Structures are given as C-alpha cells and as structure tokens.
Amino acid sequence: PVQGFANPGTWNTRAYWGRRDVWYKTYTDEPTEVKAVHGRASWSWRTRLALRETVLAQTEPGGGRGLVLALLMGDRSELSYDALDLVRRGSLAHSLALSGLHVGFIVGLGAGLAWAVGWVAPGLYMWLPRPKWAILLAAPLVAGYLWLGQGAPSLVRASVMFGAWGVLLWQGRSQVLLDGLFWAVLVLVCMDPLCVYDLGVQLSVTAVAGLIVLGRTLAAGWQRLGAFLPRWLLPVRYALGVMGVSALANVVLLPLVTANFGFASPHLYLNALWLPLLGLGVLPLALVGVLGWLLPGANAVGALGFGAAARLAETMFAGLSWLDGQGWLEEILVLRPLWPQAFGYWLLLGALVLAWAGYKRFWPV
Fold it and tell me: Between the CA of residue 174 and those of 85, 108, 132, 266, what are the distances in Å?
C-alpha cells in the first residue's frame, strides 16, 4: 500500500477504491514497457471498443474528440489535463461526468419522439397520453445510454432516479418529485449501503433535492417574470432559466464543493451557453454518429455526426481558452467549512424556503 498525501477530513483515495473492491496499486517507471492482458473480452466490451475506435478514426485529435468520448462512453482518456482544468475553472465539470444532466438530455429526446408520435398520429394520444409515451420511448434510450456509458456509478444513479419517477408518473402521480428521489435513494442504498460515503452520491442527491425544493419555491415568481417578456426574447428566458437552475444547484452544493475541493467558481453564467450547446448540439450529433455506425451502409452518416460533434466541441474549448487568456476564468480559494457550518447553511436555506412559502400563503404572488 502507498502511504502519504494524508489530508484528514477530505478526499480519501484509498477508501474510494476500496468501496469498489480495488485493493492494489500498480505503476511502472518504464514508460515504454508494454503490458499484456490475457483473456477474451465480452461481446458488450468488444462492441464498445469498436465504437471507440470508430470515433477515434473519424475525428481529429484534441479536446473535441475527448468531449465526444466523454459524453458517449464516460471515457476521458483523450482529454488533456489543461482541457479538464479549463472545464473545472469554468464551473462546468459536472457536464463531463455522466449523470442526471445527460440522462435528462436523453429523456428529452424521448419526449421529442413522443411529440412526434402525436404529430404523425394524434389518435394514439387517446390510447396513451403523451407523458406516458415519453416514458415508454425514453426508457430504451436510457437503457442504451447506460450500457454505452459502461454502467458508470453516476449514470446508474441517474437511471434509477428516472426509473423511480417514471414508475410514479406511469401510475398517474406526476407531482411527487421528492417521492421519486426517496425511492431512488432507497434502491441505491439497498444495492450498495456504502454508497452513502460516495461523494458522487452525496452531490447528486443533494443537488436534486435542492432543485426540487428551491425550484418549486421560486417557480411561480419565475413564471410571472417570463409572462412579461415578449416572444422574441424567449431565447433569453431559456438562457436565464439554464443559468438559474445551475445557480440553484451550486447554491445547495456550496458546502459539499468547498469542503471537498477547497474552491468555488464564480463563472456559473457559462452554463447558460455551454449546456445548451452540449445538450442540443454535441450529444445529439454524437448519437447520430452512433446511429450511422449501427445501421448497415450508413458509415457516411456516422462520420458526419461524429465529425460535426467533435468540431463543435473543439469550438467550445476554444472559447474557454480565449476566456482563460483574458484572465476571466479565475477561481476563488475558500476555507473548508466544518460540518456544523454546513448544517447551519442548509438550515438557513430551509428556513428561507419555509418563510417564502408562508409569505405566498398570506400574500399570493
């Protein structure tokens, strides 16, 4: 075992890998040494490897290729440290970890297909309402994305949450977001009781709970504000909505982020541009590439999709590099809070929610 780099109360690498039943570290001081792995990989693994090789063959080296692989397969091996550092300092690191954000994009595709079903054959809505069509069409997409992402723990969590909400919605219970979250947490804890110590679980559950509670509290005021905006300003409203959701998530996560990483990024505004480009551009184009790779005789479509996705992602990284060159991606180093401070912070947020709810009861807005 390797000792050192001890930092009590913060990230514990040995515990992280121990929870994954990994108890050894291997390393070499000969960079040219070749290690051979014997055995035959499964069909599933070979298929993903073939897809990865296709992406590498049809895209240019760089951050764009790395972002496409990260979004599709959770493979960040093609992303340089400098690229990862730019994303981190831009408050965009959550967009690289396959999680609820990406599952949300996939579910959005399912909702789009449900809308298309009604447009082609409106009578189908008499048999099954559109929300249930969305669940029905999104479920195989989420399952396929879970397989493609190699069953990453964060992706499993997000898929379980989608499943919990989907089952409740299928039963006609559409306004039970917290119930769905509790069911998902119960399933996760039953699957792996030690997951409560996993930082990824803590971040995802806390962020979703905060968005549900704070989002519901502020939704009415946001809708009233949007009603005053003219139609041609709808893109502005959408951008502000994305930035608002990111701001709420980061407000709730502030104690966890600062305690574990020791810094806070003030550049939440970048999410308003980065996330739409990711969810409406890079990921759909990459999925077009996967579709072209799967269908016989559609290699040209696959190459077009992968190439366009990588070029768009490369442009996004170029934008971050330009901002960094102007000195606009600086981060704020902060003191790590102790648990009583974190508890008091969340207690104050809860008190504000209750106060606002009481205000709306007596003074409707």
Answer: 39, 16, 11, 35
Residue type, 158: A
Give one DSSP letter per residue of 178-223, joined into a string.
HHHHHHHHHHHHHH-GGGGG-HHHHHHHHHHHHHHHHHHHHHHHHH
Helix (H) or strand (E) holding 113: helix 100-120
What is the residue type of 342? Answer: A
CA-based nearest residue to 55, from 277, 308, 317: 308
- Angle in degrees, 0-180, between the axes of helices 199-227 and 339-362, rounded to the nearest 10: 30
Q: How many CB atoms lie within 10 A of CB 315?
A: 14
Q: Give the span between the Cα atoms of 106 and 243, in whole angstroms.
A: 20
Reported as a single tens digit per residue, the pLDDT across 92-135 is 988 888 888 889 889 989 999 999 999 999 888 888 899 899 99
Over residues 37-87, the pLDDT tens digits come to: 677 888 998 999 999 999 999 999 999 999 999 999 989 999 999 999 999
Residue with tokens 């769905």: 180
Cα distance between residue 105 and residue 110, in whole Å = 9
Tell which residue, 260, 200, 202, has the closest CA to residue 9.
260
The 3-state DSSP class for residue 12 equals coil
Query: What are the backbone dihedrals phi and psi of residue 332, each rounded to the nearest 5 degrees, phi first?
Result: -110, 120
CA atoms within 13 A on the CB side of 116: 7
